[in-house]
Design goal:
By secondary structure, the chain is of the alpha/beta class. It contains eight helices and five strands, in the order βαβααβααβααβα.
Length: about 210
């Protein structure tokens, strides 16, 4: 059986990732591709429980190292219970956030050492790396305005301030350069149709 494809969506707050994940799933299925949608943190029963612990409460509730370990604990269960079985069955997996969010949020944003994050990634993610990562980029002020306008602020990360989110954006763009073999930067400005066209162009160019 053909091994499935693994696509991850990354980016800052208010970039429209979740909307585009749903649109991509619909389009893949129109092309006869068996695909599932999942998210991080979360995506499995155990990981969703960890999500509730990690994302809620005061902004300073967890140290950067503790937060990183919580995210990778959730990721381990997610990989074991959801992602790897789907890929092995030949299905495509479209995931709203994955390990690059740890590099950005806990690393650049929170100050967790990069080598610590990469050690955990090697041990837990291993060879299950994305085939394609779409990094949604737009000015931080625009993303935060969108998030506020849509009432999307629901976790402790959104309360960490403008400079925190600027660090995230810079790190995501650095990741796109460092890992250009799997990353495509998506201009997240404009309407949903325009962004969806950019997403599909990346899928066609890299995977189809």
């Amino acid at each position: 059986m053909t091994h499935g494809r693994f696509i991850t969506f990354e980016g800052g707050e208010g970039a429209g990732k979740s909307t585009q994940v749903a649109r991509l799933l619909e389009r893949l299925r129109e092309h006869g591709i068996d695909a599932i949608r999942t998210r991080e943190p979360g995506g499995s029963t155990g990981a969703e429980e960890i999500r509730n612990i990690a994302l809620n409460g005061d902004a300073g509730r967890w140290s950067p190292l503790t937060e990183t370990m919580l995210m990778f604990a959730a990721r381990s269960d997610h990989l074991e219970k959801t992602i790897r079985p789907a890929l092995e069955a030949g299905r495509w997996v479209v995931c709203d956030r994955f390990a690059d969010s740890s590099r950005a949020y806990q690393g650049a944003g929170g100050g967790a050492p990069a080598d610590f994050i990469e050690t955990l990634d090697a041990a837990i993610v291993g060879d299950t790396q994305p085939d394609l990562t779409l990094i949604f980029d737009l000015p931080v002020e625009v993303g935060l305005e969108r998030a506020f306008g849509r009432g999307l602020f629901e976790t402790r990360f959104e309360s960490k301030g403008l400079e925190f989110h600027e660090r995230l954006r810079r790190r995501f763009l650095e990741i796109a350069q460092e890992k250009s073999e799997r990353c495509v930067v998506i201009d997240a400005t404009g309407d949903e149709e325009a962004v969806a066209a950019r997403v599909w162009a990346a899928i066609e160019g890299r995977l189809l």
